[in-house]
Amino acid sequence: MHQMMMMAYGPAAGGDPYWANVTSLLHFDGADASTTFTDVKGKTWTGAGNAQLDTAFFKWGSAALLLDGSGDYISTPGSTDYSPTGDFTCEAWIRPAAIGSIGAIASTRLSGNGWQFQVNADGTILVGWWGSWSGSFFGLTSTTVLAVNTYYHVRWCKSGSTYYLFVDGILEASGTPAGIYASNTATLYLGYDPQAGGRYFNGHIDDFRITNGVARSTSSFTPPTAAFPDS
Hints:
The protein is mostly beta strands. The chain contains no helices and 15 strands. It is globular and about 45 Å long.
C-alpha cells in the first residue's frame, strides 16, 4: 500500500505556468473536523451531511476532505469556469475507503447534461459526458483498478476535441467524440452525483484543481510530488 498519505509538504515551489487558468484549487487544509473548505481561487463551497476535514489521512498539507459515502458532499455554484467547451483539466488525489458502488469524485451532471468523474463499482475510474451530443454519452474508463486506503492521482484533460484519462500519471484511455461539448453551468459537486441523487464518494479527496483553457497533459507524466502551487 502507498505510504505517502502522511507527507506534510506545502504547495510546490516554482509556481504554476497556468495559474491564470486555474478556476478552483482546494488543498483541504485546516483543523480536524472543520467544515470550512477554502478555495484558493475564491469560490464559495458549502458542505452537506458530515463532509469535513480530516487530519488523519491527508496526501499533502495538514488535512484532506473526508466523505463517508452517505449524504456527504461539498458544492459550489455553477459557472462556465467548470464547463469544458475548450481545453480543460480536472484532477485530484483520492483515497477510496470502499469499493463496490459508484462514487462520484466531481460532477456537474444534471438533467441529463454535464460531466462526471467517478470511481466505478469495480474500482476503475470513469470520466463521462452526458447530453452534449444530442443526448448521447461519451466516456473513458481506466484499466487500473483502485485499492482501498491508497492515494491515487487522477486527472482528465480535454485538448482540442480529444479527451484523456490518467491514473498516477499513466495515460489509460483517450478518445474523440462525434460532437462538440455543449456549455453546462450546473452546480459543481464533489462527492455526489446530482443526476442519480446519490452515488456518494466514500473516502478522502485532497488537492482538487480545475484548469480551464489548458490541457495539462496529453501523454503520461510524473504525478505531482508536492501540493499544487498557489500562484
